[in-house]
Amino acid sequence: MRDTLFENVTAVTMDGDTPVRPDSYVLVSGGRIASVTDSPPPDFSGERIDGRGKVLLPGLVNCHTHIPMTVLRGYADDYDLQTWLTKYIFPVEAKLDGRCVRAGALLGIAEALASGTTSFTDMYYFCDDILAAVEESGIKANVSRGTSLFSEDFSFESHPGCVEMRRLHREWDGRDGGRIRIEASIHAEYTSNPKLWAAVAEYAAENGLGMHVHLSETRKEHEDCIAKYGASPAAILDRYGVWGTRAVAAHCVRVTGDDMDLLAARGVNVAHNPVSNLKLASGIAPVPALLARGINVALGTDSVASNNSHDLFEEIKTAALIHKGASGDPRAVSALDALRLATFNGARAQGRADECGRMVPGMDADLILLDFDRPHLVPCHNVVSNLVYSARGSDVVLTMVRGRILYRDGAFTTIDLPRVRRELEDYVLPTLFG
Ligand SMILES: [Zn+2]
């Protein structure tokens, strides 16, 4: 792979409290960031990319999605979570096969790359097909098989989700030098029971796997759990060891002060999904209170079926806005805070903080370049403000993972998008909706 030099670029390093470095030279060598300097490195002979009028930023990290559900975009809108799931989503998902999942994953990854995402955390099934799409595309991902259990009859050795989790762990974890990671997953408290929680938690802790769980997304889920167990979802899952490993709790809309103290004590990461939570009318997660407790909050889109896009710039802006509106405090989540949720905090939640999320020498060159010469981005009094309040995913002109350009000026280097679209039209849509 050739070395790359971004010249005269505005580098937003996300390192420290003053992360903006105008007129910088960012050298990428061997897939890593070699230097960030104010003058050109001597004797450079690789590819030069003109960064004038452009902003270079660490790639965005989407910490909660179900990427194959991209094929359900716009299929069922304006319902609450329970109606949406049981009447619309579950019946279509019952028709899914690996071929549909692979096409949906490739489409979702293409959308993610084109809007600046370089790594994502996914929970779904048919994970071999998701992982094949991840492998082919060059993006980073932490992938988990969401497990559920609706009966008291349980065997860790034969439960299909647990069998798949163990096989994925053996066959895929650490693939391509750690670009691909496998995590454990309990879909949610309300879709399983203590037998599953204890077994999956034990396996994750013994094998050093991350954990991905939906937590207190809706009032009904939260209150039904208290009625059933006399404890909140966060507390009852804690009793079975679910937070005994690096964990991502998605949503946390209804968590209480005690829940937040518990999540802070256990070091649980929270994936905040503001657009999905608003669309399904679930509510607004108490992000300022989570951050005040020192909890690492990252951002997610959730599935495109409840968003309806993978554009993390929408999440960044929404996260910066809704907590101001909800609290009456315009500083509740600052622009820099919001940008941090989608970069460094996301990398931390994925267990990749030493690898990406900041633009410092030695880290992987997971970088995105935005065109700041567009009408909605001028003038630019404050680069971070424009990134958060004015930029869109479509301003991304280049996406690079580990120094490899995966998307540039509307074209993908690893994904054959016309082929994916043909597969969608010829096979996926007829199979699911035909
Ligand atoms: Zn979800």
Shape: globular
CATH architecture classification name of the largest domain: Alpha-Beta Barrel
Could you give the distance between the termini? 44 Å
Give me the number of helical elements: 16
Task: Give the % helix.
Answer: 25-40%
CATH homologous superfamily descriptor of the largest domain: Metal-dependent hydrolases
Residue windows where pLDDT falls under 50 for at least 5 positions = none
Which secondary-structure class do the elements indicate?
alpha/beta
Domain unit count: 2
Report on the biggest sheet.
9 strands, mixed
Rg, please?
21 Å
The CATH class name of the largest domain reads Alpha Beta
The fraction of residues in strands falls at 15-25%
Bound molecules: zinc ion
> Do you know the CATH topology of the largest domain?
TIM Barrel
How many strand elements? 17
What would you note in describing this structure?
The mean pLDDT is 97. The protein has helices spanning 81-93, 98-114, 127-137, 160-172, 175-178, 194-207, 219-229, 233-239, 257-266, 274-279, 287-292, 312-327, 335-342, 344-349, 383-390, 417-433, and strands spanning 4-12, 20-29, 32-37, 47-50, 54-58, 60-65, 117-124, 140-145, 180-188, 211-215, 247-251, 269-272, 297-299, 367-371, 396-401, 404-408, 411-412. The longest helix is centred in the N-terminal third of the chain and has 17 residues, at 98-114. It is built from 16 helices and 17 strands. Strands 1, 2, 3, 4, 5, 14, 15, 16 and 17 form a nine-stranded mixed β-sheet that branches. Strands 6-7-8-9-10-11-12-13 form an eight-stranded parallel β-sheet. Helix 2 packs across helix 16. The radius of gyration is 21 Å and the shape is globular. A hairpin with a 2-residue loop joins strand 2 and strand 3 (32-37).
